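Hey,
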Amino acid sequence: MQNVLIVEDDNLQAGMLSTTISQKYPDWTITHTDNLEQALKIIDDSVHTINFTLFLLDIHLTEMENDKSGYAIAKHLRSINVYFKTPILFLTSVSGDGHYAMSNFHCYNYITKPYDADIILNQISHMLLTGFLETMITVCDIERIKHHISVNDIILIEASGRRKTLQLTNSRIITSMYTIEDFIRMTDSRLIQCHKHYLINPFYIENTDRLNRCLNICGNNIPIGRKYWDTFFETVELI
């Protein structure tokens, strides 16, 4: 689950952004403000509570010709340790602004107005797939012990009846409380289903064998089901 801050002075545009993201990712928390002062306060308060994981910043927050309030917010973010690497998507009507932002504030990318829902979701999807947006999940194992896990650490999930085995980079967790569909939702679709019994993290794939319809991931030979073949390779090729 992600915690998103949208800073956009146009409430109509902000509503469109919020609705687009919420419909695709209903478990995400989205906060909106429309001015520089309130944005800085929200950011400062969040440092000691629940940190934001993604920022969408409008560069121009007033009608003043030379207003660059979004840059001031980005500069402030990069001065805070916990937000030094947090992804920023800039929102602008001038493409030149975006290029400046990317080179000076290490933002992930920029979106030009008017916003297009598909472009917004594609940008976010790519951030999830490439690991720019780190997703943490909580899993209860068969002994009811809770584990807080970064999706980046999950190599694969194998289903065997009701039991699911999570193979992590440094351990394994066995649970019987979740379905494959639950894990897809919980991980914001970061894991790819390649077979009815398997979800895999594409960044650990070592090679794929199209002839024998399988892949190798950290020494595990995993089948690729016919039902998932096209979607699997389409997704992997985007990364």
